[in-house]
């Protein structure tokens, strides 16, 4: 059964049968913003471009790599980004993730000790206005879900209203075992580069 992650919650990467997760996907799902039409008649849809990104650090918390829409694979190919979704679900929630970042912990460079995930609103659209924005962590591939391990809902939290950047959470290695810290904190940043600096300074 999936765990509903709460802010600050820490979980081990363990499946329901007790084995450890090796291939983890972090998926983001969101919809287009509905707006009233001219003179209040009907509605129109405004495309939303959310960008999921992954930041890799070594044991000394030095930045090693950033995987995002402009760099879809880590240097060791253990982290892969599905590609940039520029619109969100224009026709309503189809239940599928719009962007997925896959992490293969088995092939991830042993020098990596922190794997942070952040979300940015590319066009500066307020998180508080974006329908059904959510995060899920699961075993599988970008096109196949084997087992949902955890979910995190950002659409219904008032904490994100007025913000366009957030830190989703950080995978971290402790005594050779990977764990996950569900941070779920909005930031004051406007761009990915700023969010990377915030993670480095505050969330490792």
TrEMBL record:
InterPro entries: Stress/Tellurium_Resist (IPR051324), TerD (IPR003325). The keyword Transmembrane does not apply. GO terms for biological process: response to tellurium ion. Keywords: Tellurium resistance. It comes from the Bacteria. Residues 1-194 form the TerD domain. The keyword Repressor does not apply. Gene3D superfamilies: sav2460 like domains. Coiled coil: none annotated. This is TerD family protein. It comes from Mucilaginibacter rubeus.
């Amino acid at each position: 059964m999936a765990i509903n992650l709460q802010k600050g919650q820490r979980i081990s990467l363990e499946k329901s049968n007790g084995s450890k997760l090796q291939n983890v996907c972090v998926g983001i799902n969101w919809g287009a913003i509905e707006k009233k039409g001219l003179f209040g008649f009907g509605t129109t849809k405004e495309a939303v471009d959310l960008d999921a990104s992954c930041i890799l650090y070594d044991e000394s918390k030095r930045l090693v790599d950033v995987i995002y829409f402009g760099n879809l694979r880590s240097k060791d190919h253990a982290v892969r980004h599905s590609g940039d979704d520029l619109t969100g679900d224009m026709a309503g929630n189809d239940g599928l993730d719009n962007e997925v970042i896959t992490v293969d912990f088995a092939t991830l460079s042993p020098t990596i000790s922190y794997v942070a995930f952040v979300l940015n609103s590319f066009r500066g659209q307020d998180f508080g206005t974006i329908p059904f924005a959510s995060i899920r962590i699961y075993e599988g591939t970008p096109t196949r879900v084997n087992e949902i391990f955890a979910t995190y809902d950002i659409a219904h939290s008032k904490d994100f209203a007025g913000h366009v950047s957030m830190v989703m959470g950080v995978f971290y290695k402790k005594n050779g075992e990977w764990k996950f810290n569900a941070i779920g904190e909005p930031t004051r940043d406007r761009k990915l580069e700023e969010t990377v600096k915030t993670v480095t300074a505050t969330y490792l």
